[in-house]
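Review box. Two proteins, two foldings.
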Amino acid sequence: MIKQFWIKGQVTLSDLFIGDPQSKMRDAVANTEDYALLTAFAATNRLIAYLRRDTVTDADEIDHLCIKRNIMEEALAARLRAAKQRAAG
């Protein structure tokens, strides 16, 4: 098993690779601005839909992208709730 290291607070979405731990994905999402995160979420969704139609795509790649998409979705929902509370408060 290869140990993967990164500097917490400096990793970005472009630094993610198949097999990266979820903690690295969460750190990358946390370091991403709102608009860039929304754009990456949409692009990941499109890529997953495309790859699921491809019969030669590696299942690990699709799994990685689905986990990444779910983490981005959670972060976007939390950011939207926080913005709504700030606007109401």
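Next protein.
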Amino acid sequence: MKLNIDGICERCRKSRDKGDKQPYLMSDGNEMDPGEVPTYLPELSQAEEMLIARAHVHVEAKRIRGHQYQYTGHTVCFMNNTTKLYNTLPLLPHQLDVLLLRPANHSHNEPQFRKQFVKDFKVKRSNVVQWLQYLKRNSPAYRDINIDFGIAQQLPDDGDLLDQVTAIVDSPQDDSGPVNAVPPVPSEQADIGIDLPPVSTVVPNLLVEQSERDILTLHLDAQRQHLTMPSLQVTPIDESRSQLLYSMAYPTLFPHGKADFSLPRRRTVTLQQWSEHLIRYKDGRFGSHPRFRYMVFNQIMRDHVRKASNWLVKKSDLERELTVEDLRKALEDTEQSPLLSKIMRHANTLAGTRPFWNNKRNQLMAYARNLDCNNLFFTFSAADMQWFDLQSHMPRFEDYLTGDDQLRKRIIRNNLQSRPHIAAGWLYRRFELFKQHLLKPLFNMTDYWHRYEWQVRGSGHIHGFAWFKEALAADMSTPESRASFAGFWSQSATAFNPDPYRCPDAIHPSSLPYEEQVNTKDLLTACLNCFQRHTICTESYCLRKNKSTGQKHCRFNFPRSFQETAATTRDVNPQYWMFTPQRNDTLLNPYIAPVTMGWLANTDMNPATSRRAVINYIAKYCSKAEKKSESYTNLMRQVLPRLNEHTPLFSLASKLMNKLIGERDWSAQEVCHILLGLPLQQGSRQVVTLDCRPEHSQNTMVTIENDEIAAGQSVLDKYKSRNIEIEALHDVTLLDFLRCYNFISK
């Protein structure tokens, strides 16, 4: 943290900016310290906190894991932007916005199903009453509530609410079910006896007019079982911002009503800064809370959509005057509507959405076109976060050190779901250090581009490219050049297993303490046989049907033939040449020994043989969106019938951007990655886009940073406004100006 002699960390010292501003931005003097939770207050379950919460802003659907299909338990928060406020507490169980989705032909009362979520639904009456009495005395958000002790008497003395939660059948065969299924765990890979923790994700909702009723109707209309919703009185979230909304929704996080985002402050703090500070708070309660992160994320994304839509309307002089009918005609007359393209360009600042990744793909294509083909593709997995150094920052580390392999796996998986902010922050930090201290010096890396991808179950991956100064440029034109290429890369990459018949070690190599992570052939062999071999093919992961033959095959082309020497061949993929290393193990993924032993998790590193191969990889893996989705045109057609007559352009833009954000589940780790202010993509080059249309037809440059939207100069404007008094800039051409000068403000 780099504390100074006064105990002030570097982040707070930097926040003073110029002029030695007071108070520190993240200090108690600026209403940024929520205070500690008194130790005598009991720790509440999620159900207990919901029963005492004044504000309710989302609906939870909990999918029970079915042992027949081995689905991981899955909790999805469906966000809504209307708030239910209660003045009399506690609530009764039937008032909680929770749905339990159980497998067909099984009761949620069966012991193997109850144990998955019973902890979340534990209720002890005395805990509820004690917290309400404390909040009424100490929190401004609870000062005027009525505590109904008669209702409290109806709560269990010490039991659970699973029998009182609405349960509906969730059939795995029904693709139209209410939530996206977590991919099933193959039976061969399932760890017998290990209780997998529920996976947590969110489906954002950014439109004020969509209430709980709309959300539940949308996600439950495919269910055969009828569900009657009670009448609700709702308040839009925008109208609640003058209230201590977060203190009302999450009382265990804000027991004193301090540091709520709605409080006035001497120094302005954006929602992004506020959430990043609290996610990092010292006791970890904000980062580990299963619902707080989703509300903040939903509000941040909604603010971005609103500002981008407002900016679009402000700068669209012609379209701003169009009626709903005019917009429909303008959008339906062509598949390449200029207005639709303009909306998508404004949406490319929304992190993690399809327009965002399409923009990143275009930037990566610029790397591929302008840099030499002396690079390799890479994928770094996270080994399900089993690293020793990561677990040292997680709960139950002492138990992790002394426990057997089964206990370690249970601790690791629980930590991954309960501390997603640590997992997300550590993966980013680990790869940054790995890139700086191993990849750059080992290969003399000159350029790079990479992105972070988070699976629904919480495990992360890094996909990207690295360019090396001494690497031999790809030339597949002659047998001699191909042999030289193979000979160069065979010095680093291989598929030779020192002991292909060795069984995986009892302890995962990534879990070894520092003193046992030694650079020996024995550890390398343990790593290869534990996580570098492709031992199981499943339909949910890699098996694909050949359209010509109808036969299923592994999309990674395993098993592969033995090979005595490295070569370049088209046997693996007839479309382009591929480097194939020496191989004595048909299931071993090629590896580079220092990289494997340094990263201590599965890696995939393959040298590029042509720009065509690079472009193919870009399209398939490196900059793809998180899921295959509908076309922009289809999404636009879905929102057209529901446009607001008074502000049609703003309505169109905001609804379409909301569709883009809410078209998939967002994992807890990905949400934390964004809330921590970490970039989803990084590169060594600045990609400059030059608009070659006439100046009057060009778009205004738009950026969203720290919750603010702003206009900037185009690169042409910057060229025209350059200081021509400087001799080097007087006669410089536009192309040389873009290529050779850094005109980014510091």
